[in-house]
């Protein structure tokens, strides 16, 4: 194959036909045989003629918001994604709600949660081998908890708060205020002795890491009173400090989510007041807080941003183009630093003055470079609506586990949302092929079963007719 210079390739890609090809085909950056034929043509007529025979045999994909295989940033307002369920090999942990999931070294660490009982176990899912493993609790053993937070810092998982055992004497659900560190390399739990401002015990709060600080906001105390305070834990000095954030705050909030959004990952020694967020093409860097139950105990779809890197910190409510998610709580919101998007999935909303609630299975993506809600075209085997699940993101994928529906616990399967459009389309084609094959097999089984039933009926009918014949011989 003839070698082409970068100038030739770029010139072709900028031509009308080149733009057509690379818009309608999720092409790789390397040149294929049909591209070589096009580049060998010197005029537009020859290009059209050369492409005419090839284009008929090539299947075109719809014009979509597209991310290349190197995960470049989107430029349109639409994205195609695909769900699929992982077939886990061997043992898997029982399903649960209000647990946490943390990604390290191609593994997902599942901590706590509640199902038939409140859990304190640590289970790790190996992404490459598709297997689960239960780890031994060693060290300052973590208490059983749910509705807690888990953040990553310097190769460790920092666990804070959560609900635990029910106190029958005082008729309340106890909450935790201690900080535990899970060391990934040794699978060892260590209790962090902290100083400074006392932070009341809580559950259903949000937490994220900004530089060397863990920022905590809102939640519920053990009397189920909603909280509106903010505090930071200096993970280097191990000291708590209350935060005074100027601007209009969300007020009392629980069951919400938060994520630190920045173009450049800050150093683990940087202060929340000095962290640099001015580059990386993020329209509005800071700590994003979305949804939850507000002080009136109504579901919210408000999006707030805490602007960091200055003193004092400041609340803002940015204007975002596109259609936002509906009000919800007990959802998940994950920041994907590779694609520069926030991913919101699921959650629930209660119907007014009733005990009925609705769980969602919709997906929303916020493009943080163009600051707009994208239209998401969802393909594949879509999971059932749920709330109280947990999620984590790596590469161009989001993983979810557990949760509850309107009436029962969800299965203990892991679901994956593929957000690379070219991979998503190919994955959906495989899913549809399998679905068609399964339908054909089921149709065949039903047909075969029907034939068997019919044959049995005919056989019984013949037997009845045969038994009525008089075989006696008259003399």
UniProtKB/TrEMBL annotation:
SUPFAM superfamilies: Kelch motif. This is Uncharacterized protein. Keywords: Kelch repeat, Repeat. PANTHER family: ACYL-COA-BINDING DOMAIN-CONTAINING PROTEIN 5, FIBRONECTIN TYPE-III DOMAIN-CONTAINING PROTEIN. It comes from Stentor coeruleus. Pfam families: Kelch_KLHDC2_KLHL20_DRC7.
